[in-house]
Amino acid sequence: MTATIEPEVGKSRRRKEDERLITGRTRWTDNIVLPGMLHLAVLRSPLAHAKITSLDTSAAKESPGVLAVYTAADLDPDGSIGMPCAWPVTPDMAAPRRPVLAADRVNFAGEGVAVVVARSAAEAHDALEAIEVDYDELPAVLDMEAALADGAPLVHEELGSNKNALWVFDSAEAGTGSNVEDAVSSSEIVLKRRFRQQRLVPAFMEPRACVVDPTGAQITMWAATQVPHILRVMSALTLGLPEHKLRVIAPDVGGGFGGKIGVLPEEMMALLVANKLGKPVKWNESRSETMLAAHHGRDQIQDLTISADADGTITGLKVELLANLGAYNGLVGPGVPILGAFMFNAIYKIPAYHFACTNVFTTTTLTDAYRGAGRPEATFAIERIIDELADELGMDPLELREKNWIKHEEFPFTTVAGLTYDSGNYEAATEKAKELFGYDALRREQAQRREANDPVQLGIGISTFTEMCGLAPSRVLGSLDYAAGGWEYASLRVLPTGKVEVTTGASAHGQGHETAWSQIVADQLGVPFDDVEVLHGDTQSSHKGMDTYGSRSLVVGGIAVVKAAEKVVAKAKPVAAHLLECSEDDLEFAGGKFTVRGTDSSTTIQDIAFSVFSAHDLPDGMEPSLDSDATFDPENFSFPHGTHLCATEVDTETGRVKLRSYVCVDDVGSVVNPLIVEGQVHGGLAQGIAQALFEEAVHDESGTLTTGTFADYLLPSAADLPSFTTARTETPSTTNPLGAKGVGEAGTIASTPAVVNAVIDAVRHFGVNDIEMPLTPMRVWHAVRYGTTFHTRGAGSEAGGGLGSIDASGGVQ
To answer: Of 23, 441, 571, 586, whose CA is between 20 and 30 Å from 221?
Structure first.
């Protein structure tokens, strides 16, 4: 009897890559040392907005170990180089040039004005102090609403306005729904709310870095980036380099969360300096530089109007956003809030919808993609206003959600925003979450505490969410004026000994690609898991790809691997038929073995690999190779969903918030590796909860970042969070052969509104219907005492996320 091979897909395998990552036996960009390598340090503006009236580098040039000091006049004398933006969201979008180094004006605190080249990093940084710069300070532009007012100071005088673009979607005009003004005017309930998405720092573990070696036949760049392929293309276009002479390598990368998706001035600077000097150079930023000059995330003002009938049936939704882009357009920054446009309707059957987003320039660090990129912002707003509507109607918030959500039998369902959700079961996920959470018992306890006027009140928060991920499909992205496609590439090389090398265009920075891809190939080809090697992050070994962001790795990149494996099997089949002396039609393939139907005559794909290598006995005209590649362009996004329930205890006398329990039931379709999924969910929950309770990037009135270190920008540790209860339901995607949906951003998207809703629920009977994030003890206490929250509009807060510390039980104190 033939032993049954246990499938790899669905198995909780420990990640192959973890041993080298955990033990440090790997190579990060800053570990790279090349013969004769020089070091770069960037002088950054201390002012948010100013004219540069003089710049003297002469003393710095005489500093020990210094080889050169460059300014904008040296690196870009004709002012022609500008950082790329791949997402011009409207034809008339304002596009000011973002220089490699500021020439005559700085537009945010942290913008580079000069670069020192020295024999050591210490000498380069020491020499920065010898550079003399005189500034004529200009008014800072921080408040988005004030920035749009007549007569406001301008970030870019040549534009004549601080408005970047206005992007509008209207369901009546698009033919996906009815007129929202009619819905609002004819509805019995109309509710308006304003929500604030505070500015966040991606706070990845490894600071940004790059090394450029111009001394070979090619220019080689190592970079701590999520997007080596995009970086290569954009570097060639930006600097006029021949693309085939540029090799970009992303070695192991210590986290990204969207924060390493950009094409950086410092990377262009390193390329320019290396080419000028003909020597390798390295730039590696400090943590403070990361906080100051790496792009930030979120930062929106959200005005929502929702209308409903008296029975709770939602009739319309109107969304007006102000989105802070900072001083310049990021690589995809202008499009980030536009992604949210398709998710404000969430899981609900809303018949009328209008969305308008105004992107605004301010004198702050630019914003761009941050874990979820537009989807967390949308989910937060809709889940918050659903709770507000439930309170207005006197309904249980779960009951209101169930009344309006898409039922499982209604899939596929085309939403009012024009997307077609292929599969889902919100009822199953919610029922499972309620059971694990003890929802009814907690509601009873909540009522008892209120009746007893307990100083520690219990709140229950709900977030039932879906997201669009797996960016995807190219034609849709093109219709939104996105410059690139949504496809992904993979190739399989079957070696003579039957081992398999996989190259993937998806570039990992902690997601577990090497393990998951090995599991997929092991099942597709029937080879042992340990016989598969996954290569990624090098534009020479994996020559094309669209890289990693937007929860697209598995549902796009993984499917490209499947398609390439199918081609390997198709190539092997005629060889197997020839060796087994049968017709191809008589062959069955399973478990890595071709078998003549109805017999025990068989051969393995690994045996075939050696036969192809030797090429002694192949069918006439057959190429001696099983190697195959595939490019997969998905037909649709994928739509994971879930229900997250949070219980918080709020001390009304101190404002202290304690996370008592957190339950989430996510549906990410078919799962390749449950252990990886669990890790992604846990990490996502930590980041979403951190936005709700801890994190905020704050600028003072002059535009100086006051949260520029981890002493001021509060990140939670594992000890600050509760043990999560996680579970899954499974409705496979119908648009890819694995049935998979994205998981990398789900926890972040769902958790923030769950936590905030829980805190508001605990103190709503004090007249509180909103507290601005992060919900620090001061803000919670102030809301309980006065029924209002502190509001910030881009120019700082009472103390930001840095107010308060946390006890080991997960409470802020």
So the answer is: 23
- Do residues 331 and 86 touch, judged by C-beta distance below 8 A? yes
Output phi, psi for 287, to 5 deg. -65, -40
Please give the sequence-ordered ranges of beta strands (E in DSSP) within 474-518, or none if there are none. 488-494, 500-504
- Give the integer Cα–Cα distance in Å for 650 and 456: 5
Buried-exposed string 136-160: b where 16+ CB fall within 10 A, e elsewhere: eebebbbbbebbeeeeeebbbeeee
What pLDDT score was predicted for residue 718?
Answer: 86
CA distance 363 to 100: 17
| Cβ proximity of 698 and 774 under 8 Å | no
Enter the pTM of the model: 0.94
Contact 416, 170 (CB under 8 A): no
CA atoms of 57 and 39, how far apart (whole Å): 17
Residues 251 and 26 sit within 8 Å (Cβ to Cβ): yes
CB of 355 within 8 A of CB of 344?
yes
pLDDT at 216: 87
Q: How far is CA 213 from the centre of its chain?
A: 30
**CA pair distance 323, 360, nearest whole angstrom:** 6
Low-confidence ranges of the chain (pLDDT < 70): 1-4, 789-813
> Sign of the CA dihedral 267, 272, 273, 274?
positive
**Distance of alpha carbon 34 from its chain centroid, rounded?**
32
Question: Cα 25 to chain center, whole Å?
Answer: 27
* Tens of pLDDT, residues 587-600: 999 999 999 999 99
Non-local CB neighbours of 152 within 8 Å, separated by 6+ positions: 141, 146, 162
- Per DSSP, the three-state class of 143 is coil
Q: What is the CA radius of gyration of the chain?
A: 28
Pairing of strands 209-213, 219-223: antiparallel
Residue 112: strand pairing partners: 44
DSSP-assigned beta bridge partners for residue 603: 594
All residues at 6 or more sequence positions from 129 whose CB lies less than 8 Å from its CB, including other chains:
none
